Amino acid sequence: MVKTQPGVLAASLEKTMKPKIKIFQDMGISANDIAQIISNDPSSLYRSADNRFTPSLSVLKRFLGSSAEVAKVLKISGWFLKLDLKKTLVPNIEFLKSCGVGMDQIVKQIYNFPRFLLHSPEDMKKFVKKVDEMGASRSSRLFIHAVRVVSSMTDENWELKLKHFSDLGFSEDDILKMFKKSPPVFAVSQRKLKEVKEVLLATEKYDISCIVNDPTSFVCSVEKKIKPRMQVLGILHSRNLIKKWPSLATITRMPECKFLEKFVQPYLNEVGEVYMATSELNSERNKKIRIK
């Protein structure tokens, strides 16, 4: 606290500190949680108890259901005590609900991307308009993810992102299709997008259309997932141990345990050491492979 907010040493214990701590205590928040919330963001002690602290905590508890969940969110981000939630969080939630987004999805965003729902309501409407223009369906559970991704970029950066996809050889229809299929892909760095595309096309097993149909490949780790799996499959294919090269979805979506079960464990003599050397498996999984 002292490192980030030295002024706390001179703050009034009776007027500044105790009233805020008491509000937390009256909500039933534990001492450990209070300590973590305040130490993560000591500036919260300077917020008005009546105009910011109490109203914000009340709003959060209404949406999250319990003091324990409120504490959980505040330990993630102190921004909920900095802004007027009745002018940001509340209208944004009501607007997203009017767009067909379920409350369960909205709550997940509060935990995972707390700043997202604290944009101004005017900006939130602009984000939704942009997503609508990209053709994303409001009935899709991916809709809120699309809005969140758009909200994370300025208009200029968004246009640069679209241009980069175009420079990589994707048509406008391709870009729209990928956005509707996997909005988080549009938050991936330009370097990563280029690297994944080059690695996949270099195999000569996949083309641009394959990537468009399974854009989640862009969020996969090249070194930990794509390359190790490609190397294993390449060995198996060259030795006629698999008849058909798997789809890109197999590379990107199949859980590691399933991939091991289907492509590694039956052929340990051929690919076991290769896979363990190229993928960052933990020691426990390595032991299981050796045992089997």
Automatic annotation (TrEMBL):
Protein family: Belongs to the mTERF family.
Keywords from the UniProt entry: Transcription, Transcription regulation, Transcription termination, Transit peptide
Biological source species: Abeliophyllum distichum
GO biological process: DNA-templated transcription termination
Classification of source organism: Eukaryota, Viridiplantae, Streptophyta, Embryophyta, Tracheophyta
Domain of life of the organism encoding this protein: Eukaryota
Name of the protein in question: Mitochondrial transcription termination factor family protein
Coiled coil (residue ranges): none
